[in-house]
């Protein structure tokens, strides 16, 4: 009996210790959840957004740095040039050829959007302007007219033939940062260019895969001709070519960038289907939930640690398609996944954003909703109720956490939906949808900007686990133009037939190689969660930077300086003495300047 009593005591103590361990773990978990606090983001928001709202819009129309000549057929090229130069904080003026000729005396640099040299005036006008030190960027395939016949040698062209088809682009230089030797758009480009051979004095930056020159520079007198031989500059994805070309037209060129790398996981955390997925079960012998917890998420965290990524998850509460109240179905609430995934997401340096109560885009247009298989909302009030329910759901898991970023389901957001978000969500700071054009006109397409109502618009550039031709081109251009890598994926891409496809093992290898390539090519990018990136972008947007160059000294002055700012410097010279800044070489003849004060200086050496 004594032996039995002793064993019972041992068992009792063991059970008691086990229960205490569980209680302690639960207590620790609750403490962690309650301690997750990001109030500093909202404090920073007030500072940078108010600075943007109070920024005086200065436009030097009488003395612009860049003049853009266009006609009704080249408006898209003109618009892209204006926006690229706006991000570079350069003043511009547009000249419509139907309303008169460009004023050479007021234009240090001219960008011609049309294919006609005659739109700039006489042959003598053009020759005299460039010879005297003017910079002329020809942004369209030129017509072989009388002006061309006289000027083509001065443009760096030795001989020319008829128009030819262009399939694929080969980067001869690093006009796009980090791309020397790379080939793009082999599978998707069908463009037209003029068949040309260049003089030995011309500097070529880009050619077709069949070796036809597409972008080059020719010095003439004291000035420069920059010639683009294609139609790509009408596309938003090619804006980096404009930035790169402008930055190489004159020596020791400096322009600001945002310098951020941000990565979104849409639909994460979210409810996970309970039924077995045949594809996953065949490969891993696991349920979908078990696969995400034990395979997918550890893989994603490994890539984040190795390739310097901070994830922003955009959560979904329910996959039911209801667009009318009530929105508090107890069966929908998956706190286990929200807490387990969300906690690690935050602890790994990432953050939680909102995707929606469910995956029904906030639009009342049934035609748009139907194109995605969704239901249209019937009122803004119902939209607001769904957002409030999502906030309540999140607060149950993370009581002190402030969610500030919104990602529209399927990248669709109407004006009514946007207002509903503002009405029901006071902490809303950032909306992240799409950057590139949408030919269907269904998507919420954005620029990087602070909207008039104070919301930071911060679009995504690329998507998917597996890289593709078009995204690679857009990434290279956007990194050169504004210094941004912004990408998104969905956890369920592996089981979705209309997204990436293939096995997870294959997909993950390609994804990890993709992220490794980005990290190794652009190691200088600052990995950020969405809220940090938004604050950094808004901080840069509210500044006005001026650059002065004299006697091999580059001087920068930043109005409305709040925090460190970043610039690209293109120069063939060596870096000397630095004042209030740090300089890092990121490519041949290309440097990243980190400005640590409102005034900074970089001394260059021959």
Describe this structure as you would to a colleague:
This protein is α/β, with parallel strands linked by helices and 606 residues long. It has three domains: 66-251, Rossmann fold (3-Layer(aba) Sandwich); 261-516, Glycoside hydrolase/deacetylase (TIM Barrel, Alpha-Beta Barrel); 543-605. 34% of the residues lie in helices and 24% in strands. It has 15 helices and 28 strands. Strands 2-1-3-4-11-10-9-6-7 form a nine-stranded mixed sheet, with helices on both faces. The chain has a five-stranded parallel sheet with strand order 15-14-13-21-20. A four-stranded antiparallel sheet has the order 12-24-27-26, with no helix packed on it. Helix 6 packs across helix 13 (469-482) and helix 8 (288-307) runs parallel beside helix 14. The N and C termini lie far apart (96 Å).
Biggest β-sheet, characterized? 9 strands, mixed
**Beta-strand content estimate:** 15-25%
Mean pLDDT: 92
CATH topology of the largest domain: TIM Barrel
The CATH superfamily title of the largest domain: Glycoside hydrolase/deacetylase
- Backbone CA Rg: 28 Å
Distance, first to last CA: 96 Å
């Amino acid at each position: 009996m004594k032996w039995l009593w002793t064993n019972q005591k041992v068992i009792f103590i063991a059970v008691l210790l086990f229960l205490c361990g569980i209680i302690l773990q639960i207590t620790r978990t609750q403490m962690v959840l309650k301690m997750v606090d990001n109030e500093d983001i909202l404090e920073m928001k007030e500072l940078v957004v108010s600075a943007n709202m109070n920024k005086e819009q200065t436009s030097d129309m009488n003395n612009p740095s860049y003049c853009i000549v266009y006609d009704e057929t080249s408006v898209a090229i003109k618009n892209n040039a204006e926006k690229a130069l706006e991000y570079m904080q350069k003043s511009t003026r547009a000249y419509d050829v139907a309303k008169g000729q460009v004023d050479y005396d007021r234009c240090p640099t001219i960008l011609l959007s049309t294919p006609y040299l005659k739109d700039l005036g006489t042959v003598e006008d053009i020759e005299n302007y460039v010879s005297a030190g003017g910079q002329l960027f020809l942004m369209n395939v030129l017509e072989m007219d009388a002006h061309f016949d006289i000027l083509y040698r001065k443009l760096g062209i030795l001989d020319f033939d008829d128009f030819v088809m262009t399939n694929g682009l080969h980067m001869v230089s690093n006009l796009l940062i980090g791309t020397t030797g790379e080939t793009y758009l082999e599978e998707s480009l069908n463009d037209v260019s003029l068949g040309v051979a260049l003089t030995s004095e011309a500097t070529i930056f880009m050619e077709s895969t069949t070796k036809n020159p597409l972008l080059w520079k020719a010095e003439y007198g004291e000035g420069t001709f920059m010639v683009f031989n294609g139609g790509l500059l009408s596309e938003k994805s090619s804006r980096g070519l404009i930035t790169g070309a402008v930055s190489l037209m004159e020596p020791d060129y400096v322009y600001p960038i945002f310098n951020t790398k941000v990565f979104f996981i849409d639909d994460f955390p979210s409810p996970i289907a309970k039924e077995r997925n045949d594809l996953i079960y065949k490969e891993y012998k696991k349920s979908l939930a078990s696969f995400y917890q034990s395979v997918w998420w550890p893989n994603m965290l490994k890539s984040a640690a190795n390739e310097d990524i901070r994830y922003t998850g955009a959560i979904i509460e329910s996959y039911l398609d209801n667009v009318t109240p009530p929105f508090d179905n107890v069966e929908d609430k998956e706190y286990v996944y929200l807490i387990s995934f969300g906690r690690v997401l935050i602890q790994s340096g990432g953050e939680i954003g909102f995707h929606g109560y469910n995956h029904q885009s906030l639009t009342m247009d049934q035609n748009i909703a139907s194109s995605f298989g969704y239901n249209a909302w019937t009122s803004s009030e119902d939209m607001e109720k769904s957002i409030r329910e999502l906030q309540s759901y999140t607060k149950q898991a993370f009581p002190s956490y402030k969610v500030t970023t919104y990602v529209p389901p399927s990248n669709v957001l109407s004006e009514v939906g946007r207002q509903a978000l503002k009405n029901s969500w006071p902490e809303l700071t950032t909306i992240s949808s799409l950057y590139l054009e949408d030919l269907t006109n269904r998507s919420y397409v954005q620029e990087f900007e602070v909207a008039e109502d104070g919301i930071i618009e911060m679009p995504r550039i690329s998507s998917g686990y597996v890289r593709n031709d078009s995204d690679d081109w857009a990434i290279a251009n956007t990194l050169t133009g504004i210094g941004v890598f912004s990408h998104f994926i969905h956890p369920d891409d592996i089981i979705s037939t209309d997204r990436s496809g293939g096995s997870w093992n294959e997909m993950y290898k390609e994804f990890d190689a993709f992220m490794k390539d980005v990290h190794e090519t652009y190691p200088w990018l600052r990995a950020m969660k969405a809220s940090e990136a938004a604050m950094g972008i808004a901080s840069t947007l509210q500044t006005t930077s001026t650059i002065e160059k004299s006697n091999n000294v580059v001087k920068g002055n930043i109005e409305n300086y709040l925090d460190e700012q970043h610039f690209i410097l293109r120069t063939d010279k060596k870096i000397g003495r630095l004042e209030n800044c740090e300089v890092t070489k990121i490519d041949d003849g290309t440097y990243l300047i980190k400005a640590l004060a409102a005034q900074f200086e970089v001394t260059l050496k021959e």
